[in-house]
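Obj: model holo form, ligand = beta-D-galactopyranose.
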Amino acid sequence: MPVPRLLSDTAPAHGAVRTPRSWLHSDVPSLSLNGEWRFRLSPSADLPDDVASPSLDDAAWDSLPVPAHWVLQGDGRYGRPIYTNVQFPFPIEPPFVPDENPTGDYRRHFDLPAGWPDDARIVLRFDGVESLYRVWVNGTEAGAASGSRLAHEFDVTDLVRAGANLLSVRVHQWSAASYLEDQDQWWLPGIFRDVTLSARPADGLEDVWLRTGFADGRGTIDPEVTATDDAFPVTLRLPELGVEVVWATPAEVAPVAIGAVDPWTAESPRLYDATVASRGETVSLRVGFRTVEIRGDRFLVNGRRVVFHGMNRHETHPERGRVFDEEHARAELIRMKRFNVNAIRTSHYPPHPRLLDLADELGFWVVLECDLETHGFEKAGWRDNPSDDPRWRDAYLDRMRRTVERDKNHPAIVMWSLGNESGTGANLAAMSAWVHDRDPERPVHYEGDYTGEYTDVYSRMYSSVPETEQIGTDGSLAPLLGCTPAQGARQRTKPFLLCEYAHAMGNGPGALDQYEALADAHPRLHGGFVWEWRDHGILTRTADGTPFYAYGGDFGEVVHDGNFVMDGMVLSNDLPTPGLHEFAAVAQPVALTFSEGAEQLIVANRRHSASAADLTLQWRVEHDGRETASGVLEAPTVAAGDAERVALPAVPRSDDGETWLTVEAVLSEDAPWAPAGHVVARAQLDRTPSRAARRGSPAAAEWRDSAGTVDLGLASFDRGGLVRLAGRRASGPRLELFRAPTDNDEGAASSDPTYSDASIAGVSSAQLWREQGLDRLTHRLVSVQEAPGALRTVTRVSAANSVDSVTVETIWAAIDGELELRVEIEPTAGWPSVWPRIGVRFDLPDDGSPIDTAEWFGTGPLESYPDSTRAAYVGRFRASIDQLNVEYARPQETGHRTAVREVDLGTFAFTTLADSRGRLPGFSLSRHTPQQVAAARHPHELPTSDTTHLFVDAAQHGLGSRACGPDVWPEFALRPEARTLQVRFRA
Ligand code: GAL
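Output (holo C-alpha cells):
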C-alpha cells in the first residue's frame, strides 16, 4: 500500500497478523530479538522501501537499543519528546497526519536457531511499537500494525529461512492510530517493548484461558483451550492441589471442581502454580481463585464489597520512558503496598504484560484499560470523533480484543475499561458488547458513558465531595454530569467508583479524608483511583550540564501542556510526596480510634477479607515529644468488617508538658512487600491534663515615642527593626501574605457549582493574589515606641495602587531571659479573595554559619496544610532544610508544619503560644522567599542564596486539588482575618 494511504488507513493491521491470544509462559523455543539494531531516522514518512532490501548497506547507520524510544536516545540526535495533554501535536484532520512524520528504520540480522521443529509456525511478536509499523523479513513484507501499547504477532513461517535472516521494521511516529492515542502523556515513538521470535508447534497450545471461581471455600476452573485436535490429549495440573485432569479431545474440555482452596484477593494474593500441556507445548500459569460480580449497586469479589484505594498508573520513567524495567516496576508496586494502595487502574493502556504477573503476586485489584483516548476531539465539540464513526469500528474492536485476550488469565484484573476520554459513541458500545460476550464475568468500565448506556459500573472523574455524596445517597435526583434526573437515578442503581480523583499535582491534594469518609458512609461508593501515581519528568540537562526533570515546553514543543504531566504521588526521582503519606494515613486498612474516656482502643478492620491477625499493636507515651513509656497491646484477632476493643495502658501524665499516647499497628512478620515492624496504621490521643493556657505577658503601658535603636535581651533593633538575634544578623518580622502558588493555587476556578470555588470561574487564586499585589507588599513604618524592656512598632502594609491594607503591630518584650514577640495582624475591610497565608518572615543571613537544620516539637515529620493533616502526628522531629522542603517539579509552596510548639534552629530557639482561640502557629524554613520560588520554573532555576528565611504562620490556606478538580473546601480556605502571633525566643 502506498505510504500516504497506509498512514491514513483506519484499519488496525494488514498482512500476516495473527489472532490475538494470551501472553503465556510457554516452553516452545523462542529467541529474544531485543538488543542493538541498526537505526536510521528520517524526518518524513515518504521514503523508498530500501529499509527492507537485503542488499542495502546499513553499515553507516546508527545503532539503537530495542526496546527504546528513539527520542530518548542519542541526546537529542533523534528528536525530542513532546508532551501534550488534550491537544494533538498535529492538525486535527482525521485520519490524516502531516508529511512531517519522523520515521525510524530499524534493521537487524538474526540466525534462525538450528533445531527448531520443521513443522512449527514461526511467529514474530512485538509487544509495543509506537505508533504504526511495517515489518519485512528478508525483504518481503510480513504486514503492518498499529495500537502502540498492544501486542501483535506476525506469522513469518514462509519468510524466514535456515541460518541468517534480515528483519526490517519501519516505524512512523504519526498515523491514523495517533488519533486514538491522545492520552495525557509524552509522545514517545519507537519499538519500546520486547520483540520475540518463537516456533509454535502444530500440536501446541494456541491459547489457554483458565477462568477461575471461588465460592464457599471451594475453587473452580472453567478452562478454554484453543488448539488443534492433534494437540490433544491436553493435561491440566495443579500439583499443590493434587489436580491432574486429562482431556483426550477438545470436546472433553470442561469445568473442573477443585475442592477446598484459599481464595485470591488483593490482600492475600494466594496463587497456585498450574500447567497446561498439549502434545507439543506446556504453558505455566499462576492461578488465583476468585469470583467477580455485581449485585445491585455493589461490586463484589468472592461475595464481599471491594473498596478501591487505587492509583492511576502510567508506565513512565525519567530515562526509559515507557520501556519496562521489571525491577523498577516491582519496587513501585512494593511502594504502593507500603502506602496502603490496594488497586491500580492501568491508565490509559495495557502495561507491559509482566506487570500483571506482579499484580497477581503482590496483590492489587486491577482495572485494566484499553489503549484508547481521543480527547483532542472535545475541542470541536467531538466533531469527527472516531468513537462514533463507523470507519473506526474495526480499530476500536481490535484494540479491545487485543487488550482482553492478552491479559485475560490474571486474577488481579477485576474490571475491563474501554479507554479514557474518548467521548461516546457506537464504537465504544461495540467494544463493550464484545467484552460482555467474551468475558461475561468482569464488568466493563468507561467513564465517558455518563448515562450508562453500555457500561456496568458508574464512574466519574473529579466529582466533588458534595456531588459524590449525592451519588452515594438513595432517592436523590440531584443533577449528575451528562444525565437527566431519571438517568441519574438509574446510574445510582449501579456500583460507583471514581476512576480519577484527588489530582496530585505539586503540593497536594487536599481533602483525601473527605473522599474516604464518603466510601465509609455509602456502600454504593467503591472508592477510587488517585490521579496519578508518579510524575512523568524526563531526566535531561541544561546547556551547562545541570540535570533536571523536564516537562512540557522543555523540549521546544510547538504546542504543549507545561507541567501538567507532573501530577504524581511520587516524584520523578521515585521520592514519595507528603501527599502519598497522607493517602497512606487516610487509606489505612485498620482504623484505630479511642473510646470515650480513653480507656480502650477500638480496632476496626476495614479490609476486604483478611483478618488483622498479621498486625501487632504497639504503643508509646511521650512527654513533650520524648518517650517515657512504651509497650505492646494484647491484640485481638479482628475479622474483616469487624471492630474490637482493647484495653489501653495507664498513661503517665506530664506535670507541665504535653502528654501524647501513640498507637501503631505494625506488621508482626515480614510480608513480601515490607519488613516486620512496618507501620500500617497510627492513631494519637492527647492525654495532656487540661491546664490554663500559657498566656503572653501583658503589654507595657508606659509607651513613649522612640528612635527604636535599642538592645532588648538577646536582640538588637535599629529604627524599630530587628538587626541581631542571639548574636547573629537577623531581620523581621515582616508580614508575609504570599506563598509561591501551588499548582492547585494556579488552577482556574471551574463553573461546577459544587467545586466550592472561592473565586470567579476561569480565574485562579494565584491570579487574584498577584492582582492584589500580595507578592509585592510595601511597608510604611507608622510608629516606634519604647517602654522599659519593651519595643513596639506599627506598620501599614499594602501594595501599589491598592486601597486595602494590613496594620501590623509588633511588641517585643524581654522577659525572664527570653524575648517575647507578639504580632497583631489586622486587615482593613474589603480584601476581595482568600489569602495564601497570614504570617511573618525573618531573614537570617548565613554569615559563615547557615541555619540549615531544625529540630521541633509539633506536628511532623512531613509538611501539612489545613486539608492535609492526617499523616502529621505530634512528636519531636529533626530535619535539614532540604528535608523540610519538597522539590516539586515546578517550585512552589512547601515545608509548612502546622501547630508547632517549639523550634530549635541551633543558634536560637523559640516556643510558640496559642492565640485566644487555642490555635498554634506553624513554621517553615527556606533558602528562598516565596517571590523567588514563584519565579522559578524548575528547581535548578532558583538563585543561589546566602540567607535562611524563617516563616511563622498564624494560618495557611488549604491545598485543594483545583489543578484539576475542586477548590479548597470552605472550612479550610483562608479568609483575610485578624490574627495574633506570639513566640518567645531564647538563645
Ligand atoms: C483526566 C485524564 C487524565 C489526566 C488528568 C489530568 O481528565 O483522564 O489522563 O489528563 O485528567 O492530569
